Automatic annotation (TrEMBL):
The name this protein goes by in its record: Cell division protein FtsX
Annotated compartments: Cell inner membrane
Keywords assigned: Cell cycle, Cell division, Cell inner membrane, Cell membrane, Membrane, Transmembrane, Transmembrane helix
TM regions (residue ranges): 194-218, 247-269, 289-312
InterPro entries to which the protein is assigned, alphabetical: ABC3_permease_C, FtsX, FtsX_ECD, FtsX_proteobact-type
Domain of life of the native organism: Bacteria
Lineage: Bacteria, Pseudomonadati, Pseudomonadota, Gammaproteobacteria, Alteromonadales
Length: 324
C-alpha cells in the first residue's frame, strides 16, 4: 500500500516536472531554430525578402482600396438630389416642403433655391441676361437640393429616396445622376475582388516558399534526424525547431512587408500632395493602422507556420533510422 502511494507521488512529481520544463524546452528550441537561421544567412535573408515582398503586394493593394473608399465616401456624401417644384407652388408651400423633407431620416440637408434666385443665377451663367429681361414671367421653377445621409448616398438607396421625394405633391420632377455612382461602386467592387484574388495567390506562394525552405533544411539534417529517432526522440520533438523556423520566417517577413508598405506610402504621399495642390484640394494618404500592422504580422506568422507544418509532417515521418 505504501509502495503504491509512493509510486503515485513519484508519477505526480514527474508529471509536474515535465509540465514546468515544457515551456523552457519550447524557448530553447525557438532560440535554437533562430540560431539555425543565423547559420545560413543567405538562404534565410532571401526567404525573408521573398516573403516580405509577397505580403507587401496585397497589403499595398489593400492600402489603395482603403484610400479609394475614403475618396468615394467623400464623393458619395457630396451627391445631391435635385427637385424641381411646380410653377404653381408659392413661397409658403415651398418652405413647408423644405421642413417636411428635412424630417426624412435619409436626408442630411435641404437647400432651397427660389425661382427668382434661379433666374438670377441663370442670367449670370448663361450670358443671356439682357434677352431674359423681355420675358413676361419667370420660366424657371423653384428648386430643392437634397443631400442624402451617408447611408443613403449609395446608388440603390439614393434611387429609393428619389422615388419617395417625387411623390410629394409640390414636386414636378426629380433628378439624380446615379450612373457615375454605379460605375464607381462597380469599379470599387472589381478592385476588391482583384485584391482578394492576388492576395490568395500570394499567400499560397508564401506557404509553398516556406514549405520548400523547411524541406531543404530537413534534408540537410537527414542524418541527424535519423540518429535522434534512433535514440528515442519523438516526431513532435524533432518537428518543433522546424515549426519555430516557420514562425521566425513569418515574423521577419511580416515586419519587412510593413516597412515596405510604409516606405511606398511615404513615397506616394508626396506625389499625391503635389497633384491635389494643383486642384486646390487636400487629401492625406492613409497608411496602415496599428491594428492592420499587427494583423499583417500575425497573418504572416500563420502562413509561415502552415508552410513549415505541411513540410515537416510529410518529410520527417519519411525519415527512418537504418536497422543495422
Amino acid at each position: 500500500m505504501t509502495n503504491r502511494h509512493s509510486s503515485g507521488l513519484v508519477e505526480r512529481e514527474s508529471f509536474f516536472r515535465r509540465l514546468l520544463t515544457l515551456p523552457i524546452r519550447h524557448v530553447q528550441q525557438a532560440i535554437g531554430s533562430l540560431g539555425d537561421l543565423w547559420r545560413t544567412p543567405f538562404t534565410s535573408v532571401m526567404t525573408v525578402f521573398v516573403l516580405g515582398i509577397s505580403l507587401a503586394l496585397p497589403a499595398t493593394l489593400h492600402l489603395f482600396v482603403k484610400n479609394a473608399q475614403q475618396v468615394s465616401e467623400q464623393w458619395d456624401s457630396a451627391s445631391q438630389i435635385t427637385l424641381f417644384l411646380k410653377l404653381s407652388t408659392n413661397e409658403s408651400s415651398a418652405q413647408n416642403l423644405v421642413k417636411r423633407i428635412s424630417l426624412y431620416p435619409e436626408v442630411a440637408e435641404v437647400h432651397y433655391i427660389s425661382a427668382e434666385q434661379a433666374l438670377k443665377e441663370f442670367k449670370i451663367l448663361s450670358g443671356f441676361g439682357q434677352s431674359l429681361e423681355y420675358l413676361d414671367k419667370n420660366p424657371l421653377p423653384a428648386t430643392l437640393l437634397v443631400t442624402p445621409t451617408q447611408r443613403s448616398s449609395q446608388s440603390q438607396a439614393a434611387n429609393e429616396l428619389l422615388a419617395k421625394l417625387v411623390n410629394e405633391r409640390e414636386v414636378e420632377q426629380g433628378k439624380l445622376d446615379v450612373e457615375w455612382l454605379t460605375r464607381l461602386e462597380a469599379m470599387a467592387n472589381l478592385i476588391e475582388d482583384i485584391v482578394l484574388g492576388v492576395a490568395l495567390l500570394l499567400c499560397l506562394s508564401v506557404v509553398l516558399i516556406v514549405g520548400n525552405t523547411i524541406r531543404l533544411a530537413i534534408l540537410n539534417q537527414k542524418d541527424a534526424i535519423a540518429i535522434m529517432k534512433l535514440v528515442g526522440a519523438t516526431d513532435s520533438f524533432i518537428q518543433r525547431p522546424f515549426l519555430y523556423s516557420g514562425v521566425w520566417y513569418g515574423i521577419f517577413g511580416g515586419l519587412l512587408s510593413c516597412v515596405a508598405v510604409a516606405l511606398l506610402a511615404q513615397y506616394l504621399a508626396g506625389a499625391i500632395n503635389e497633384l491635389t495642390d494643383l486642384y486646390n484640394s487636400s487629401f492625406v494618404l492613409q497608411g496602415l493602422s496599428f491594428n492592420e500592422v499587427v494583423l499583417l504580422i500575425v497573418f504572416a506568422i500563420i502562413l509561415g507556420l502552415l508552410g513549415s507544418y505541411i513540410s515537416v509532417r510529410q518529410h520527417i515521418k519519411a525519415i527512418e533510422p537504418n536497422a543495422e
